[in-house]
Write a structure and sequence with these properties.
Radius of gyration: 15 Å
Order of helices and strands: HEEHEEHEH
Number of helices: 4
Strand order of the largest sheet: 1-2-5
Number of domains: 1
Helix content: 25-40%
């Protein structure tokens, strides 16, 4: 599931509207963008199951975001996933200027899901929690600003 979000976020259509790091994948785009079409593809590809870490069905969540677009194309879609443990990345991505293609699951060079590379037992764990909380607050404030606008 993580790979599906990363692949969507780092696609040419969504890279400018996305943030990808070891703590989350976040996409915020307008309903009339090419990225919205990629998010539709994501929704179709996601498994229809309950994601225990975030206490929700991610497929249903993305589909609900897309349903809101039916009301107005000026609306925005926001999709996010948080891994159940930090994922090792060489760098964060939030631009389409990347020269390399994203790694896919099963690629020998892909270490993003290798549990031996996850820094769970490090002393940075507490600061990683604060980063996640900070990102969640930023997301909430952004949603409030969009609703009030």
């Amino acid at each position: 599931m993580w790979d599906l979000y990363v692949s969507t976020a780092t696609s040419d259509a969504c890279a400018a509207d996305s943030t990808v790091n070891g703590y989350s994948v976040y996409i915020l785009t307008s309903c009339d963008s090419e990225c919205a079409d990629k998010i539709k593809d994501l929704a179709e590809a996601l498994p229809n199951c309950y994601y225990y870490y975030e206490f929700m069905n991610k497929k249903q969540d993305v589909l609900e975001e897309l349903d809101d677009c039916g009301e107005s194309s000026s609306y925005h879609i926001s999709v996010t996933i948080y891994p159940d443990s930090p994922i090792k990345f060489a760098s964060s991505t939030s631009s389409s200027e990347s020269d390399t293609e994203p790694l896919l699951s099963g690629d020998p060079a892909d270490e993003t899901l290798d549990s031996s590379t996850v820094g769970i037992a490090s002393s940075a764990g507490l600061s990683q929690t604060f980063v996640g909380i900070d990102q969640m607050w930023s997301f909430l404030l952004l949603q409030i600003a969009i609703i009030l606008a």
